[in-house]
């Protein structure tokens, strides 16, 4: 009996030891899963920093009137950039040529005194960015419509031209890949005119780039002047007239000096937006993308405002005593500037055909 009891106790001990072996720790190559402590929060995205004061204060000069639609657009762009950067980047807009004319501000852009510029591509070569296609964009009767011009500039062909800006500027300036187009420019004169022949004896202000001087000389006597000098030159008799958009006529109060609009519709204005490369490199990659997007939104807003503004300005100008005269000899104007195409579009036949295909 005692022997049987001993055997039974031995069996129980063996079974207990076996059970303990089965509860041994996991093998070394099979780590046990870690259970986070109950009071450890799950990882989360860091909160965006909001800046009470900007770390980067940038300058955008503009030659157009401070109360005009272009400056309104630039301020809209500035507001979007400030919001999109949580206050880190601030853009200050100086309209009305406060910081100088286009030539002045381009030089300032190169040396870093200002950070942005809006420029007519036809003037880019004169300002040290020699891209022949951009120069040719100043040709009269080239861009067929605002919609067609925008479609071209935002196409692969337009992007390929914008890609050249950085190299053409010696690495100092780059494109912001955004554009605005303004309604066709017309001729404004102090005396009544009714044909191209009437312009032969008139001194008409031109922009200061070579192609713009040559363009006015196709029709009249070009007097190159900065935009800020137009009003005084009209009042003193240095000029008999000027050419620009209807918005330019109204916003700059030139209507006080010129009372006739001859509707030549000779150029649809194109504007490029450029930024200093040194400034661009101060932005984070996210800010660079945000800035281009913010400018695109501002440009689209500008384009949407123009039709209503144009109709409003025409009505106001008529009330102010300005007479609008239909251009009855437009083909004569087109024919007279044929030498301009020979000079500035030689070798660019494919470009001319391409951009004119966008209606």
Q: Secondary-structure map with pairings?
A:
Layout: H1 2-22, E1 56-61, H2 69-84, E2 89-94, H3 102-111, E3 116-119, H4 132-136, H5 146-153, H6 156-162, H7 165-168, E4 173-189, E5 203-206, H8 210-217, E6 221-224, H9 230-236, E7 241-244, H10 246-251, E8 260-276, H11 277-280, H12 285-319, E9 323-326, H13 330-336, H14 338-344, H15 349-356
Parallel strand pairs: 1-2, 5-6, 8-9
Antiparallel strand pairs: 3-8, 4-7, 4-8
Task: Please tell me about this protein's structure.
This protein is α/β, with parallel strands linked by helices. It contains 15 helices and nine strands. 43% of the residues lie in helices and 18% in strands. The strands form three sheets. Strands 3, 4, 7, 8 and 9 form a five-stranded mixed beta sheet that branches. It has a two-stranded parallel ribbon with strand order 1-2. Strands 5-6 form a two-stranded parallel sheet. The chain starts with a helix and ends with a helix.
Which band does the percent of strand residues land in?
Answer: 15-25%
Q: Rough shape?
A: globular
Unreliable stretches (pLDDT < 50, length at least 5) are: 1-38
Query: Radius of gyration over alpha carbons?
Result: 34 Å
Q: How do the SSEs run, as a string of H and E? A: HEHEHEHHHHEEHEHEHEHHEHHH
By DSSP, the count of extended strands is 9
Helix share of residues? 40-55%
SS-derived structural category: alpha/beta
Average pLDDT, to the nearest integer? 89
- Biggest sheet layout: 5 strands, mixed
* Head-to-tail CA distance between termini: 115 Å
């Amino acid at each position: 009996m005692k022997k049987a009891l001993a055997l039974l106790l031995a069996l129980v001990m063996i079974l207990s030891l076996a059970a303990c072996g089965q509860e041994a720790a996991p093998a070394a190559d099979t780590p046990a899963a870690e259970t986070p402590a109950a009071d450890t929060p799950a990882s989360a995205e860091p909160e965006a920093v909001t800046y009470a004061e900007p770390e980067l204060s940038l300058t955008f000069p503009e030659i157009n009137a401070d109360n005009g639609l272009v400056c309104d657009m630039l301020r809209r762009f500035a507001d979007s950039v400030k919001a999109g950067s949580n206050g880190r980047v601030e853009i200050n807009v100086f309209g009305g040529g406060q910081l100088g004319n286009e030539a002045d501000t381009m030089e300032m852009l190169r040396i870093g005194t200002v950070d942005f510029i809006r420029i007519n591509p036809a003037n880019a070569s004169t300002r040290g960015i020699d891209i022949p296609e951009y120069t040719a964009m100043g040709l009269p009767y080239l861009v067929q419509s605002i919609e067609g011009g925008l479609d071209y500039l935002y196409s692969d062909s337009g992007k390929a031209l914008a890609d050249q800006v950085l190299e053409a500027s010696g690495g100092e300036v780059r494109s912001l890949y955004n554009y605005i187009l303004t309604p066709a420019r017309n001729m404004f004169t102090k005396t009544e005119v009714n044909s191209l022949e009437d312009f032969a004896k008139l001194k008409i202000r031109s922009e200061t780039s070579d192609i713009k001087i040559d363009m006015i000389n196709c029709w009249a006597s070009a007097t190159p002047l900065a935009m800020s000098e137009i009003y005084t030159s009209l009042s003193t008799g240095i000029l008999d007239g000027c050419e620009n958009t209807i918005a330019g006529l109204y916003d700059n109060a030139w209507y006080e000096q010129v009372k006739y609009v001859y509707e030549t519709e000779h150029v649809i204005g194109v504007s490029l937006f450029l930024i200093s490369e040194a400034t661009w490199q101060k932005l984070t990659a996210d800010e660079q993308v945000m800035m281009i997007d913010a400018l695109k939104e501002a440009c689209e807003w500008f384009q949407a405002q123009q039709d209503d503004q144009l109709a409003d300005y025409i009505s106001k100008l008529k009330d102010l005593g300005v007479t609008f005269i239909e251009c009855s000899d437009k083909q004569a104007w087109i024919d007279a500037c044929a030498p301009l195409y020979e000079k500035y579009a030689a070798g660019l036949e494919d470009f001319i055909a391409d951009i004119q295909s966008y209606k």
